[in-house]
Amino acid sequence: MVKRFWGYYALHVYLPFSSFSRNWRKFFRRRKGKQHDLMQETKLPETTWQDCSTTGSVRLWEHEKQNGNVRLSELAILCAFAAGCAPGTKLFEIGTFDGRTTINLAANSPGSCNVFTLDLPPTITPKYSIAEGERHLVDKAMSGARYEKHRASSPALVAKITQLLGDSATFDYTPYEGSCSLIFVDGSHAYDYLLADTRTAMKLAKHGGVIVWHDYGIWEGVTRGLEELDQREKFGLRNIRGTSLVYWQKK
Ligand SMILES: C[S@@+](CC[C@H](N)C(=O)[O-])C[C@H]1O[C@@H](n2cnc3c(N)ncnc32)[C@H](O)[C@@H]1O
């Protein structure tokens, strides 16, 4: 009941109000000729989450946001996409962090789906340089603490999750290729990683599978990488209105 409340609040109250206030702040800053503190100007066309999803009702676990997590509204949208995944398919997250999104993908996808989540252990030297300012997200005691804490109370739910460890640029994705119905790209925000992880995500997606990127308009490497790719490859990427999420479906 409480989890449904948070899902409803995130999609129908938090999202409209936060996107209104975000646009308002952008408008005033533009009028004063200032760039937004943390945001870049964005060029990708927008879509709405409702246009991309058939589900309007989601349940949110672990609703408190920590630094490094997606916003509440973004979490609920990802849950709506998870709910639309075909039974028996895989969901793949690049960038686990504390596992808040991971447990929500598991909780909202059909029971027969499995969630794979890949994270960089602090001991591995990555192939490319990660972005300045994201080292603290890597340097943590463990990946997935927020789903692990539910293992005893909700064993079947947590059993849907497989934690993978490695560098997203060199990891062997062979067992997952062509079988994922939802891929969430939220690892390193450096330009080289955006390109490498996007190439990977496109290979992982099954026919009809959805890819979602986070931090478009927030991290320069993500914004530039997605806009350049879209211009060059004509993918038809769409920014989900009121969020930093970018959406694409494999046809
Ligand atoms: C922004 S956090 C992910 C947040 C999480 N997806 C969520 O929704 O709460 C980024 C994560 O990507 C991981 N990461 C950074 N570089 C990576 C790489 N090269 N390969 C795999 N994971 C990486 C970091 O360790 C961190 O846990």
Give an overview in words.
With 251 residues, this protein is an alpha/beta fold. The protein has a single domain (2-249), classed as Rossmann fold, CATH 3.40.50. It has helices at residues 2-31, 49-52, 72-83, 100-108, 135-138, 145-148, 155-158, 191-204, 220-233, and strands at 46-47, 90-94, 114-119, 161-165, 180-185, 205-213, 238-240, 246-249. The chain has an eight-stranded mixed sheet, sandwiched between helices. Helix 3 (72-83) packs parallel to helix 4 and helix 8 crosses helix 9 (220-233). The termini are far apart. S-adenosylmethionine is lined by residues 68-70, 93, 95-97, 100-101, 118-120, 126, 130, 137-138, 167-169, 186-188, 193.
List the uncertain runs.
Answer: none
Q: What distance separates the N and C termini?
A: 36 Å
- Tell me what the CATH architecture is: 3-Layer(aba) Sandwich
Largest sheet, spatial ordering of strands: 1-7-8-6-5-2-3-4
Helical fraction equals 25-40%
Strand content: 15-25%
Rough outline: globular
Question: Which key features would you list for this structure?
Answer:
251 residues; alpha/beta; Rossmann fold; 8-stranded mixed β-sheet; 9 helices; 8 strands; 16% strand; binds S-adenosylmethionine
